[in-house]
Specification:
By secondary structure, the protein is α/β, with parallel strands linked by helices. The protein has 13 helices and 20 strands. It folds into two domains: 233 residues, TIM Barrel; 98 residues, Lyase, Ornithine Decarboxylase, Chain A, domain 1, CATH 2.40.37.10. It starts with 9 loop residues before the first strand and ends with a strand. One of its GO terms (molecular function) is ornithine decarboxylase activity.
Length: 434
């Protein structure tokens, strides 16, 4: 098996990964290149994992692959021992190709195509969610020995992306009926799952959802089941400056109260938590247009066109309701308070007027000026398209030498990824695992 292909390289840095310095180096060496690029700080994911284990020791992270399916990121999480939340045959295939044990995967899509259920069964991915009797009938046909997890609704009042309109059954009116139906079909239910909403900002809801899940554990026992899995879903913050301390408090408190028995396995489905702050996008101004105010003919509004847009990385504006905050490379813009600011609109490169990134006050920028965008790892790359023929950004992964040495020793030969000796070059060591 391969950790990386010949086309994928991790740059190993002796010391801390300095994102700004790395961006400057890439810009200096690619002045003639009009394509955007990402700097991916692999160590940021490693630290996030360590923080998760420390703050929520009972909750095993099953990374939500849909959030960002970069191979290096997935392989890193596999090495660290994380599980994976997959939603399709394609995601299952990608994770399984890394050598991940099928028991470390949950097929967490309550509405699965028949062929995807059949594929999961063939590769021994047996843990899967459902929220309807029709789904039970499909599973009975294509994977009758599945380990089923009932998805219920318990939605946060505030979330970036609510999910309850599409997935989950009512825990009071529907869940008991579905548990009875599964019992009649001789299907095995092993637990309960919920998802309070992606980008949740209503943390006490986790405690409420865990309490509801415990009631269904009790009901399942009356029906002859012995549930042993609780899936607390996703919704965890991951941007720079955010913390999981508060959400961990509510989850840990509720687990101690309602699930003191440690034999119950608890998992979560973090996505943006792991990847949001690990990715920084760098884009270039390639065109601009100045609008003038009449009658004095003074510049009033400046339109900038950069080399990535809403059909590329900034689809997160439409899909994930992100609010974009560009940062400028030119330090004079930050330090010189006398520089005039203009109402500015930043557009993407395509011919669609919908391709609008943000409106903001900026000093006047020049062609070939760069700007960068932090917190761009979640729901950006997997959803991007090369509409109008514009290429997707390249990704340049970096990791510090000490973390790389640690990771190399974490790749188990039988369960994750087989590593071969890397090829090493000069100051920044190019890693290619053949």
């Amino acid at each position: 098996m391969k950790f990386l292909t010949q086309d994928e390289r991790i740059e190993i840095v002796d010391g801390q990964v300095n994102i700004r310095s790395i961006m400057d180096q890439h810009i200096a060496s690619n002045q003639a290149n009009d394509e955007p690029f990402y700097i991916f700080n692999v160590g940021d994911m490693v630290r996030k994992h360590q923080n998760w284990i420390e703050k929520m020791p009972r909750v095993q992270p099953f990374y939500a692959v849909k959030c960002n399916d970069n191979d290096i990121g997935l392989a890193t999480l596999a090495a660290l021992g994380a599980g994976f939340d997959c939603a399709s045959k394609g995601e299952l295939s990608k994770v399984l190709s890394l050598g991940v044990n099928p028991e470390r995967i949950i097929f967490a899509n309550p509405a699965k195509p028949n062929s995807h259920i059949h594929y999961a069964a063939n590769f021994n991915v047996k843990t899967m969610t459902f929220d309807s009797e029709i789904e039970l009938k499909k599973i009975k046909m294509f994977c009758p020995d599945a380990k089923l997890v009932l998805r219920i609704i318990c939605e946060a009042k505030v979330a970036q992306c609510p999910l309850g309109k599409k997935f989950g059954c009512d825990p009071v009116t529907e869940a008991p009926r579905l548990i009875k139906a599964a019992r009649k079909m001789n299907l095995d239910i092993i637990g309960i799952s919920f998802h309070v909403g992606s980008g949740c900002a209503d943390y006490p809801i986790y405690g409420k959802a865990i309490e509801i899940a415990k009631n269904l554990f009790d009901f399942g026992e009356k029906m002859g089941y012995k549930f042993n899995l609780l899936d607390v879903g996703g919704g965890f913050p991951g941007d720079i400056g955010t913390s999981i301390d508060e959400v961990a408090f509510y989850i840990n408190q509720a687990l101690d109260l309602h699930f003191p028995d440690k034999s119950v396995k608890v998992i979560g489905e973090p996505g943006r938590y792991y990847v949001s702050s690990a990715y920084t996008l760098v884009a270039k101004v390639h065109s601009k247009r100045i609008l003038y105010k009449q009658p004095d003919n003074t510049a009033n509004h400046i339109m900038y066109f950069i080399n990535d847009g809403v059909y590329g990385s900034f689809n997160c504006i439409l899909y994930d309701h992100q609010i974009i905050h560009p940062k400028l490379f030119n330090e004079n813009y930050k330090t010189d308070k006398t520089i005039k600011q203009f109402k500015s609109t930043i557009f993407g490169p395509t011919c669609d007027a919908l391709d609008t990134i943000c409106e903001i006050m900026l000093p006047e920028l020049e062609i070939d000026d760069y700007m960068y965008f932090e917190n761009m790892g979640a729901y950006t790359i997997p959803v991007a398209s090369p509409f109008n023929g514009f290429p997707l950004p390249k990704i340049f992964p970096y990791i510090s030498l000490d973390l790389w040495e640690m990771l190399k020793n974490l790749f188990p030969l039988s369960d994750a990824i087989r590593m071969k000796k890397p090829i090493i070059s000069n100051t920044y060591e190019n890693i290619v695992c053949a």
